[in-house]
Amino acid sequence: MSDEKREQDAPESEVSSGADAVELHEGGPEEIDDAKSAPADRDTQGPFDVSEVPAMRPYVDLGGIKVAPREGLQLRLEVDERANRVVAVSLEYQESLLQVQAFAAPKTTGLWHGVRADLAQQMTSQGGTATEETGPLGPELFVETPAAADQGGARQVRFIAVDGPRWMLRGVIMGKAATDAAVRERVLDLFRELVVVRGDQPMPPSELLPLRVPEGVQAQRQPNPGQAQGGAQPA
User: Where are stretches of biased composition, namely Low complexity (predicted)?
Assistant: First the structure.
């Protein structure tokens, strides 16, 4: 795997508004399910908590997230220039991009159901369509938004997430895997190999787990990403 750190040059892979926080659904006529959303075999098949993996297994250590190396995988870090911190990990694989973030969560309840509802509301309010589907990890949100006038067509993005012990790991799938089920299966395998390091420090629910640049590597900074808005959105 090559650790490629560069400023993103495609709007689809940029971290824009909401990259570094998740806002839970508030108010509204419907009560949001706060149960954890995770596959039954999460503790043995991933995504893993750091307590569930052998200490000797090699990973790229990014702080709150550890990435298992594999052939054909390119990794880059997204940095909020104003806050001077890493806010997301982007993994290029199988003609697709998987952007991941890990958030603090309560011990007994989950975040994904509430975050998913906020995302759906936000995307539709911006003129897109949001369709909930059931995937191997549980509920997913498939979003189509109008592309730029000079590009034509629609932009397609798929949101996935898993609630773990005191964390939520969220992924945004772009590129071929967003619509191609066979490719998406391989990208989901990559997602399930990720390890989340929650840490013991007290953190409010939905706060981004700290990420860091590995020693000896520089990350390109994202210029002026917007403020967090309901549920975090991709570019």
Answer: 218-235
